[in-house]
Amino acid sequence: MPTTLLPVPRLGPSGPFPRAPLDHQLDRRWLHYAFLSRDNEQAVIANLSVLGRSSGSVPAAPGAPPEGRRSGTGCEQGAQHMAILLVHEWQHGWGSTQFNAEQPEVPWSAFGLPHPHHLPHPLRIASRSAGPALDVRLRRTSRPCTSQCAPFAGDQHLRWQSEPGVLGSGTLRLGDGREQPTELLGYHERVRGRWGWPELGGWVFGFVNDPAGDPAAAPPSAVVFTFLQPIRPAEATSGSVMLWRHGRMVRHFPRRSMQIAVQDVLDRDRVVLVPPLARTLGTPATAMVPRRLVVTARVGDDRVVLDFHARTAARIANPSETSLRPFSVHETLGPCRVEAVIGGRRLAFETGGIVEFAGGAHD
Questions:
Q1: Residue 309 has what pLDDT?
Q2: Exposed/middle/buried for 130, CB within 10 Å: 0-12, 13-18, 19+?
Q3: Contact assessment for residue 88 and residue 75, using Cβ atoms and an 8 Å cutoff
Q4: Which one, 35, 118, 220, 267, has the greatest CB density within 10 A?
């Protein structure tokens, strides 16, 4: 009697997000990619976003298949897709696409299933003109942190999940048309939820990978931190500091164990406004970017200190759907030193880091 092979059941969504409809104007899904080259001479940052159905969209009939692009993120009928790519060279400064950068139909993500570590997958994000482009094969070496959620402003919320130690190998096209081979070490994150920019208030986020060790394996150490400051309610502030060792997260410090300090401000001449069209819209100034950021977390005898010095920043002027004021995300680059004691074991390293300072949609 012939044997019938049953399909293997999936234990999660096949894409980076559940296949649930985006049925509210403020429903959002983001995929974030951030990399530094092994020599710290180049930085690459990309945001791929999907915003929920506009108020004029007609809901699909019950049982009808979703229309339009899917991008591996679920039912997105009537949704708005945006993508932006930033590239930085210390010798030539920042380059950026507009918000309409070309992106894959199904972008690479570490959060899709199945997700083998050893197989590289392509990712291409490119300007629709002669601007920058990224054409690499990405491979994960680490495991993600647990998903974290921040509720605020009544019915709004933000959910995110992070994974450091992402390796990239391929070609980088710079703003002046030059193409260079590149080897990247970075970070990937997925964000979803429902929020308006004024209500979100602002956040500080950053990561750093230790580039020492085997370049084909997970970094010996990696640190990711988040700090969210919604406008209301007052107790909605949340955050965390997480530390990985050889691809495994070994310590999670909750918000109550964190302290954040800043010193001085980054010279405005070192801040570049992107995308290029934002310069023509009379975009108002936002708050200064700190020049130095120190994040400290301690639980019992375990502790970690991240000391970041900003050297340059690109200010992404995001349009706000519920406010006339833009919401700005400052992508800052500079050297970063990490010192930690985990389980009685000390570690320390210094390398380049990427930190985001976001806010500015409210008075």
A1: 98
A2: exposed
A3: no
A4: 35
Give me the pLDDT at residue 153, please.
93
Q: Residue 7 corresponds to which tokens in the numbers above?
A: 């399909």
Q: What pLDDT shows up at residue 3?
A: 52
pLDDT at position 70: 44
How far is Cα 165 from Cα 143, in angstroms, rounded to an integer?
9
CA–CA separation, 39 vs 45, rounded Å? 16
Backbone conformation region of residue 122, classed left if phi is above 0, alpha if psi is from -120 to 50, else beta: beta
pLDDT for res 82: 93
| pLDDT for residue 287 | 77
In 3D, which of 179, 197, 160, 135 has the Cα closest to residue 32? 160
Contact 251, 302 (CB under 8 A): yes
Question: Are 181 and 205 in contact, with CB atoms under 8 Å apart?
Answer: no
Residues lower than pLDDT 50 in the chain: 5-9, 55-75, 363
Between CA 158 and CA 229 the distance in angstroms is 12
> What's the pLDDT tens digit per position in 243-279?
999 999 999 999 999 999 999 999 999 999 999 998 8
Rounded to whole angstroms, the Cα distance separating 68 from 56 reads: 16
Closest CA to 73 of 123, 138, 15, 155: 15
